[in-house]
Design brief:
It is a single chain. This protein is of the alpha/beta class and 554 residues long. 49% of the residues lie in helices and 13% in strands. It has 19 helices and 15 strands. The strands form four sheets. It has a five-stranded parallel beta sheet with strand order 7-6-5-11-12, with helices on both faces. The chain has a four-stranded antiparallel beta sheet with strand order 1-2-4-3. The model has no long low-confidence stretch (mean pLDDT 92). The structure holds one RNA strand of 76 nucleotides.
Length: 554
RNA sequence: GCGCUUGUAGCUCAGUGGAUAGAGCGCUACCCUGCGGAGGUAGAGGCCGUGGGUUCGAGUCCCGCCAAGCGCGCCA
């Protein structure tokens, strides 16, 4: 990657300067290279001299001059100029020849352009959303979906072996309440006068689930009035609900590699093994009739209950067993859990539990995203399955479109407290920036289709004919993609991707206005066809990393 | 009360300690005999919540204050 090459050049220049006695001897590990905001400052800039000023006891500008003098263009054809600017920047400008040669390089990489080898095949799991199977996905889940799926795609591009997982909470009290509600609705379908249980799920969708249950089983699940529901109500209900969730997921284009049943932890003995390990390592204590994890021995404020005095394990115990499975059975090198901010309190004790298992807690990363505040115009919409007022993800996707929903959610940093105005989203669906990016892709597709009639084969196009400033600007923009993938995979923050896609589309539209691709000049046409093909690839890749379509026509 | 997160343009939000703080939407004025106008050009609009501190340099780091969201269960 060119950025790393520049960094190496700066560091090598520092070492040469030190060998020559022009700089005092000290270790430098970071060249502090970034992309300047203004084009007149070059393609890359290092602010290292300012950082060295104190230790070197020299003026930053002097240091910059010394370093720059050691890294002048050496005929490698990559760097056109190295300039020094006050108060102590080293600005590096890439040569047009090298830039244009990258058009061919991108073309050769094809759909793999943008990939980097940061992960080296390490196994990483991304678990996200994992909403309890007690209702359809709501709009808020969309944020976790967009974040998790995009992150998984980015990590894949960064060379990790990625698995997307959905944990199905089918063992807790929530699905039990769900089943009780479902049984009430089911009985109502047979004319029985039964109330929705206290704390149940009054949403209308439960009637649909009950109808499906009736279709499948007829009256076979009815028990005498007042008797508890048979276990099939729970299991079939969860199954039906999962079907609904999978339908919602496919509407927004998210596919999981694995659906992990919480209940399986108890069937396969993983839960027992986990408790045995915790006991063996001395982190389990019994008191007040319950079994506790000695979290306070691991720096936590207090201990946490693993098994209630009733004998039933807590969600926390389940979750520890679940992570035992992830790390000690399935052997993921690292695990990323994406949780809503309402789970933030759970983070420290989960980390402590990982330590208690003897697993390095750094192998577990928990990303907390702030909850979405839903609005209809000025009016706040309260999301609550219990209250029955839910705005489903599915209905918003149907109104606004999956690509626009994804683009909107991905572009927000996980920490931002975002407002999602349903009215605004609907109104802006036609003016969404996503179409700006897709339009650029479709425009190129149009040009390529038209070119086929005249210039079927442009593989011999000479990229050195690309000398217009707009052409070079477009190439520069394309070259940022691998850098961005690397950054996103390191910080685990994919929200820059939509902004990059916008910038890339802008660079293309600007080129399109200033340079005509298909002209009487066949040689130039061929080289520009190469350029727009590369731009099309890059746009498609950026869109693809966000799980969005790259349409040939719109 | 304690903890986590946030406060940047009218709205929704970007902004890896660096050079003159940006985008989309909205608003104003322009640009179609041209490969797709879902496009382009120009403009208005900012004490970056607030008060201190660290630094050669702070929207960015630290502390106080104000405000908002979330969390502090033998719920999940």
């Amino acid at each position: 990657m060119i950025k790393h090459e520049i960094e190496e050049m700066v560091l090598a220049a520092v070492r040469r300067a030190q060998d020559a006695g022009a700089l005092p001897a000290f270790a430098v590990s970071d060249a502090v290279v970034d992309r300047p905001q203004r084009p007149e400052h070059g393609d890359y800039a290092s602010s290292l001299p300012m950082r060295l000023a104190r230790t070197a006891r020299m003026k930053p500008l002097e240091i910059a001059k010394v370093i720059a003098s050691q890294m002048g263009p050496e005929g490698d054809g990559v760097v056109a100029a190295v300039e020094v600017a006050p108060p102590g920047f080293i600005n590096v400008r890439l040569s047009p020849e090298w830039l244009t040669s990258q058009v061919d390089a991108i073309g050769e990489q094809g759909p793999a352009f943008g990939n980097v080898d940061l992960g080296r095949g390490r196994k990483v799991q991304v678990e996200f959303v994992s909403a309890n199977p007690v209702g359809p996905l709501h709009v808020g889940n969309g944020r976790g979906l967009a974040l998790g799926d995009t992150l998984a795609r980015v990590l894949g591009a960064a060379g990790y072996e990625v698995q997307r997982e959905y944990l199905v909470n089918d063992a807790g009290t929530q699905t039990a309440t769900f089943a009780a509600t479902l049984y009430a609705r089911y009985q109502q379908l047979f004319g029985r006068e039964v109330d929705i249980p206290e704390g149940g799920y009054p949403g209308e969708y439960m009637i649909d689930v009950a109808r499906e249950l009736k279709e499948r089983c007829g009256d076979g699940l009815l028990r005498a009035e007042g008797e508890p529901y048979p276990p099939e109500v729970h299991d079939l209900g969860v199954e039906i609900m999962l079907g609904v969730i999978k339908r919602d997921l496919s509407a927004i284009g998210v596919h999981y590699d694995d659906w992990f049943s919480e209940r399986s932890l108890y069937k396969t003995g993983t839960y027992d093994k986990t408790m045995a390990l915790l006991r063996e390592r001395g982190y389990v204590a019994e008191r007040e009739g319950a079994i506790w994890l000695s979290s306070s021995a691991l720096g936590e404020e207090k201990d946490n209950v693993l098994v209630r005095s009733t004998g039933a394990p807590t969600y926390f115990a389940s979750d520890i067993a679940y992570h035992y499975d992830k790390f000690l059975i399935r052997g993921f090198d690292s695990v990323i859990n994406i949780w809503g901010a309402d789970h933030q309190g759970h983070v420290p004790r989960m980390k402590a539990a990982i330590s208690a298992l003897g697993v390095d807690p750094d192998r577990l990363t928990i990303i907390i995203y702030q909850l979405v505040t839903l609005k209809r115009g000025e009016e706040l919409v309260k999301l609550s399955k219990r209250a029955g007022d839910i705005v489903t993800l599915r209905e918003v996707v149907a109104e606004v479109g999956a690509d626009a929903v994804r683009f909107n959610f991905v572009s927000r940093a996980a920490d931002s407290h975002m407002d999602f105005d349903i009215e605004l989203a609907k109104r802006q669906s036609a003016e969404n920036p996503v179409y700006y990016v897709q339009y650029a892709h479709a425009r190129i597709a149009g040009i390529l289709t038209q070119a086929q009639e005249r210039i079927a084969d442009f593989s011999a196009g000479d990229v050195s004919l690309l000398t217009h400033e707009a052409e070079l600007a477009l190439i520069r923009r394309m070259l940022r993609l691998p850098e961005l993938v690397e950054t996103m995979a390191t910080t685990l923050e994919p929200h820059q991707l939509p902004y990059y896609a916008m910038d890339l589309a802008t660079a293309f539209h600007d080129f399109y206005e200033k340079c005509r691709v298909l002209t009487d000049d066949e040689a130039l046409s061929k080289s520009r066809l190469k350029l727009v093909s590369a731009a099309k690839l890059t746009l498609a890749r950026a869109l693809g990393l966000m799980g969005m379509s790259a349409p040939e026509r719109m």
